[in-house]
Every structure is written in C-alpha cells, then in structure tokens.
Amino acid sequence: MTPNDREARSTAETFPETWRQVMTDPRAFFATLPQVGGLGEPSTFLAICAAASALGHLLLAWGFRGAIGIFVLQVVGGFVTAGVLTLVAQHLFDGRAGFEATFRVVAYSAAPLVFYWVPLLGMIAWLYCAFLIVRGLEVVHGFDATRAVLTVALGLGALWLVTAVRAGGPAWFRG
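Given the sequence above, the corresponding structure tokens read:
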C-alpha cells in the first residue's frame, strides 16, 4: 500500500499499516511518500504517535498535566523541527524540498514515539526517530547520507542550543 492509497482512507484506519511500513521499511516508505498533499494526514499521524506516548507517560504516573505536556511538546516540536531542518537543508546544503515535504518526513518519522514512554527503550526510540528523519531527508531533499546526517545534527543541535539558552543556558555558557 502506497502513501497515496492510504490517503484515500482515514488516517485512523491506515495508521497500523503506515506505522509498520515506516518502522520496518523506511527507505521504501519515503521513496513513495508524496511531497505535497497538505499537512493534515501527516499531522494526524504525528498526533496519534504523540497521544500513544502521552498515554504511556500517564501510565508511568507523570499525571494528566505531564501527559498533556508531552503530547503538546511532541506535536509542536514536529512543526518546529521541520522548520529548522528545512532552513538548514535549503541554506547550507541546497536541499530541494520545502517545509511541507520536510514536515511530512518529520511527522512520519515520529512512529517510534509510541515507545518513548518506556524506560530505556525511549532513548532508542528517539534515536530511531532521528535515523528515520535522515532516511527521509535523503529522499525529499535529494541528499547523500552525509548531508542528511549533517542536516539533522545541525538542526537538532540548534534546537538544543535555543532550548538550553531559554532555560538559563548550559553550564559552560553561564560561566
């Protein structure tokens, strides 16, 4: 089933099959992923993954507010991450795709987030998300692996730096 076939049905109906394909055959999935078609379907996929993660965090006694925070952070983070990766890809590495195609990659790369709440497995899930983003950027921006990895590293590094500065700065920054 290609992404175009899935879009004819609701995201909730196709979620299990889409999730399985992203997780097990990302190269084929991203090779057939349309670069246009709106943000609705990928946003819904991202929201379902974030909701599963939030529910898991709720089960781990993070509380309702903590679970809502995780959900919002992951959904909003998907949009922000796509924006930053688009800027890095286009301005540093002459990437050919725009925000929509990059967001689609980021949204579907959130598939491992369903395990983010599991102790220890959460870090592996996060790393697999980054790997999936690299694979997707190779396709949509026409990158080799090196440029895709550098785009992700620089983009996530910039996001970390902004977050650290907003939180008072990293220890080395405060002096």
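Residues 11-168 form one domain. Try to locate this feature in the token string yourself.
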